[in-house]
Every structure is written in structure tokens, then in C-alpha cells.
Specification:
- The chain is mainly alpha-helical.
- It has one domain.
- Helices cover 43% and strands 6% of the residues.
- Helix 2 (31-44) packs parallel to helix 4.
- The longest helix has 14 residues, at 31-44.
- It starts with 7 loop residues before the first helix and ends in a 22-residue tail after the last strand.
- The model is unreliable at 83-88 (pLDDT under 50).
């Protein structure tokens, strides 16, 4: 991915940090909401303000799609439990058909 503000060296450094878990699905898609959730998750993951601000500045340096790509580049998406009581995650090791 080509960044507008983050250098290759800084990008490589950011990838060595603990990955923030950012809920996107089922959440407010407003750009400010996404940036706020990223910031909160990065703080929780132990990121320092300088690194968080670097990613937020990169998010703001393009359009909405750029913001989403940058968010997904430096975080892991978390799907919130929808409360239906069903584990939507596949079993570890995959499904071999006998699980159905």
C-alpha cells in the first residue's frame, strides 16, 4: 500500500507493535467514529501517542476509502457479538462436514 504521510521505515515499525482490535462491522461508519475507535484500541494495545497520531494523520490524508484501508492496515477487525447465541466463527482447524 502507498501511504501519503507514513514512510516505509515508520510503517515497518508500526507493524511490530501489538495489533489494535478495532470493531468495524455493525458500528457507526462515520470517519470520526472509526478514528476514535482506532485511537482507543491502539491506546489499549499500548501504542504511544506519537504512533497513534501518525496513523490518524495518514487516515485523514485521503478520502474515506483511504481511511478504511489505513485502519485495516494497522489493526485487526473485531466483529461484535450480535447476541443471536450463534458462534459465527468457524471451528479451529476448519469444518470437515462432520460438524454439520
Amino acid at each position: 500500500m502507498k501511504f501519503n504521510k507514513i514512510t516505509t521505515e515508520k510503517s515497518e515499525h508500526l507493524r511490530t507493535l501489538p495489533t489494535p482490535i478495532v470493531p468495524l462491522v455493525g458500528q457507526d461508519g462515520n470517519a470520526f467514529g472509526i478514528m476514535g475507535r482506532f485511537s482507543k484500541a491502539a491506546k489499549k494495545a499500548g501504542w504511544v501517542k506519537e504512533n497513534i497520531d501518525l496513523v490518524l494523520d495518514e487516515m485523514k490524508s485521503g478520502d474515506y476509502n483511504h481511511l478504511l484501508v489505513v485502519c485495516m492496515e494497522f489493526s485487526q477487525e473485531s466483529v461484535e457479538d450480535d447476541g443471536n447465541g450463534i458462534d459465527d466463527d468457524p471451528p479451529e482447524g476448519g469444518c470437515d462436514g462432520d460438524d454439520l
